[in-house]
Amino acid sequence: MPTAEAEAGEVARYEQAQRKACELANASFAAPDYAKLVWLGPLIAEGHKLVYGVRYDETETWSGWSLTADDRPKPAPSEIRFEHLRHLASIREDLLAYLGLPVGWTFATFPDGSWHAWSAKDRLLTWLGNFIAGREASRGDANAIAELIGERFDGTELHRRVVGPLQDWAAREHASPDEVADLLRWAFDWLRGSPVR
Asked: What are the residue boundaries of the structural domains of the chain, listed by start?
């Protein structure tokens, strides 16, 4: 069992890598709580290189981090594994470098060793752009957009104007994406002009 000094040294080493990743992603650094749990998809421990991580608001016991492999984006609840964040070093040490990204951020690691990170705003702009262009214009996509706006932009004009109408549209059985296109264009423009990251 590692000593408290050894664990503190490991945390300091990871913090340097996390701060560097945040600097490269143009994100503020938000230290993870190593005593809390991380949500792991079933293929993470197998070493899959294409990994997605999302940081949600933490709870009393959960760090807020959810990590999944791309080929199993939505595992069954029975397949989910929870580990203390400090134990991730022995499971997938390569992923620790990205866990200083703030709440609302997503990262992906790729088989060639590269990685990318997105803020909630970046993700939302991508989803809105795809929806407006008709590439992803399903009820499920509309609900995902509404959910992300609710999580990260609660209390803003974006939330007040978009979430209710978008959820109403998604609830109708025969709804055309054209019906919400103007609303989503407004949301896209609002986000682009917003200083929020």
From this structure: 4-118, 120-193
